[in-house]
Amino acid sequence: MRMPDPDADVIARRAAIARALRRIVPGEGVIVDEDALRAYECDGLSAYRQPPLIVVLPSTTEQVSTVLRYCHDNGVKIVPRGAGTSLSGGALPLADAVTLGLGKFNRILDIDIENRCVVAQPGVTNLAITTAVQDQGFYYAPDPSSQIACSIGGNVAENAGGVHCLKYGLTTNNLLGVEMVLMTGEVIRLGGKHLDPGGYDLMGVVTGSEGLLGVITEVTVRILRAPETARAVLMGFPDTDSAAATVADIIARGIIPAGLEMMDKPAIHAAEDFVHADYPLDVEALLICELDGPEAEVTHLIERVEAIARDKGATSLRVSTSDAERALFWAGRKAAFPAVGRISPDYYCMDGTIPRHALPTVLKRTAEMSTRYGLRCANVFHAGDGNLHPLILFDANVPDELERAEAFGAEILKLCVEVGGVLTGEHGVGVEKRDLMGEMFSDIDLQQQQRLKCAFDPGQFLNPGKVFPTLHRCAELGRMHLSGGSMPFPDIPRF
């Protein structure tokens, strides 16, 4: 995995850059000590590491604006960083770039129950938003497994999902507005406490842009009233095909659960040993299906889901009888990633999305790959929307195991595209999937995406080396090609 060659001139100016940044962010807001920098050398994709040139920790939008303007005017790259929980290397530092950390932006600015929204700084954790409004009967729907640690700004950058996104949508479906600083230092606002504006969907462009377009300094999100009733059904199956068929049948019958998750045997055992959620251990696959809404509706839907599961061969069925038991069902699922970390020195967490009908095929072929690569694989995923999270187990201290894990993961992602899916569902492209973008997009597609980046960041200072396998100069991408001495479609007005 090759990153852009460092700019030797910028590295030589490191001391001068640090002095200038200290004038903007005084006190302990600028980090240059080598040992202290190591805390920022990677994100959740820890296989790739690079100490940053400098870390700067602003605490106000004005400071962010001034830092970006200084770096723009002095040819210094910027890598934005939230909580560092990204699993695609989106916050991987560069040797010649300033890492701009937003951890000090950790305040909720406004709770507006009347308008059903919360305004928060980007460093506020996902779970903190729900905690702030739950006493008034509300919550924030997108709930990544890392919600106790991941930041809302990072959720916007990656368009994060979670176990309840099947019914309530991803970050993009719950985002109302952002304040964002462009690389030139200009502060802009998109959206807000109102209905969608007309014109270009710039909010849609920014959501999931992975720090390539600007630095988000404020987020406005939609909150929902907590449902009257919520219950979870735990369903065990003798094989993954039966569980996958149950998922497809539930959706086909018009039932949209709040969450519909699947775990295979290795993940079940790891989670049970870690959380003690009383999962059945004699099954090959486990589904967790949560229904919410009015009491009568939930009772009716649970009966229908149980009937579907029995028809598909479920060998174990249990319905939560209290909120505490429902939370315990989910605790095992949400702790699956750290639980797997207890049974393997290292693991590689993938993220691809497929059509639901392809689940049996993809799981079968993944098992075949596991045998061929000689590496175990635990599957934990959002079955309802086809978002897979295979966990490839390996030991980085064993020669070539990391390389085999990467090759295994790349083959899984290529399979996702082959069956009609996409490379990522919620973790983003970063560096992990960067060199696979050609599997999904043509050169014309990628060049058009880069033109969009150039509209926001013509100097390409923001998070370089991420997302695009081959980076073109903005001038090159904007060049018009002449045919016979004339531009194509000469009658179209040009601006």
UniProtKB/TrEMBL annotation:
Keyword Oxidoreductase: yes
Domain FAD-binding PCMH-type span(s) in chain numbering: 48-226
InterPro entries: FAD-bd_oxidored_4_C (IPR004113), FAD-bd_PCMH (IPR016166), FAD-bd_PCMH-like_sf (IPR036318), FAD-bd_PCMH_sub2 (IPR016169), FAD-linked_Oxase-like_C (IPR016164), FAD-linked_OxidoTrans_Type4 (IPR051914), Oxid_FAD_bind_N (IPR006094), Vanillyl_alc_oxidase_C-sub2 (IPR016171)
Presence of the UniProt keyword Flavoprotein in the record: yes
Keywords of this entry: FAD, Flavoprotein, Oxidoreductase
GO terms of molecular function: FAD binding; oxidoreductase activity
Taxonomic superkingdom: Bacteria
Protein name: Glycolate oxidase
Organism ancestry: Bacteria, Pseudomonadati, Pseudomonadota, Alphaproteobacteria, Rhodospirillales
